[in-house]
Design goal:
Elements: H1 14-27, E1 36-37, H2 40-47, H3 51-63, E2 67-70, E3 74-77, E4 82-85, H4 92-98, E5 103-114, H5 117-123, E6 130-140, E7 143-153, H6 170-177, E8 182-191, H7 194-200, E9 207-217, E10 220-230, E11 234-237
Parallel strand pairs: 4-11
Antiparallel strand pairs: 1-3, 2-3, 5-6, 6-7, 7-10, 8-9, 9-10
Helix pairs in contact: 1-3, 2-3
């Protein structure tokens, strides 16, 4: 005889147990985005419970944005979607942890060099000088979350030349050391080239959202950074009020 999702041995409800176990599999990465969750009748047999109990748990998971329920096809793990405020400078770690996923940072390359023509254009430098070029990846759980390409003006931030950035992402490192006085955001959509596709574990040509930012400190260019996200996993949000005449 099946139970109905009330109290079970060991405390707590069966509904809560189903909810917790499926959530844990999703958040740990054991069930990746796109994975089909067992059908309701399969979960009913697995947990020896009523279909109502299973449906209640799946409905709650869908409301939380962890799964997508498709009529006649079943339920599938959704790719977590983050939201970032357009007018803020924020730490990607906070974005990832807001999704309930563990964060990890990885340095791909670090190169100190004399600025090229392209570097000077990105940083709006009038003359050549030393820059630090960094390429990084940010992970949400086991999946790549964002690809970062950054230039740091070493004339403005000399201590960055000695920082390895092996364990600390450059964004929060800069925020903690250089007071910025002005910032500019540019947002655009692109198709992933082979390099970005490999970095984000997506198909070449897949739609991506690119957020480029420049910051200044007392009129001195500090950094230019380009964050690339898989388009389906990221949303930009702007809240504003009517302008005052």
């Amino acid at each position: 005889m099946s139970v109905t999702g009330t109290e079970i041995e060991g405390g707590g409800s069966l509904h809560q147990r189903i909810l917790s176990e499926i959530s844990e599999r999703i958040l740990s990465g054991a069930w990746a985005p796109g994975y089909r969750i067992p059908f309701e009748h399969e979960l009913t047999e697995q947990y020896n419970c009523s279909r109502m109990t299973v449906n209640k748990a799946l409905s709650q998971l869908a409301k939380a944005g962890l799964i997508e329920r498709r009529r006649r096809s079943g339920s599938f793990v959704r790719r977590p979607q983050s939201q970032a405020a357009v007018l803020e400078i924020h730490d990607i770690r906070i974005e990832v942890e807001a999704l309930g996923l563990p964060y990890r940072y990885e340095l791909i390359s670090r190169q100190k060099r004399r600025s090229s023509t392209e570097d000077r254009a990105l940083l709006e430098l009038s003359i050549a000088g030393p820059v630090l070029a960094l390429e990084c990846r940010h992970f949400a759980g086991k999946r790549p979350f964002a690809h970062e390409q950054r230039l740091i003006n070493l004339t403005a931030v000399t201590e960055a030349s000695e920082e390895a950035f092996l364990d600390t992402a450059p964004g929060p490192w800069l925020i903690g050391r250089v007071p910025w006085s002005e910032a500019e955001h540019r947002i655009r959509a692109v198709a992933a080239d082979r390099h970005i596709a490999a970095s984000l574990d997506i198909e070449p040509g897949a739609p991506c959202l690119v957020v480029e930012r420049r910051t200044w400190s007392a009129d001195h260019p500090v950094t230019h950074v380009r964050f690339t996200y898989a388009a389906e996993s990221h949303t930009l949000v702007a809240r504003f009020t009517p302008s005052q005449s």
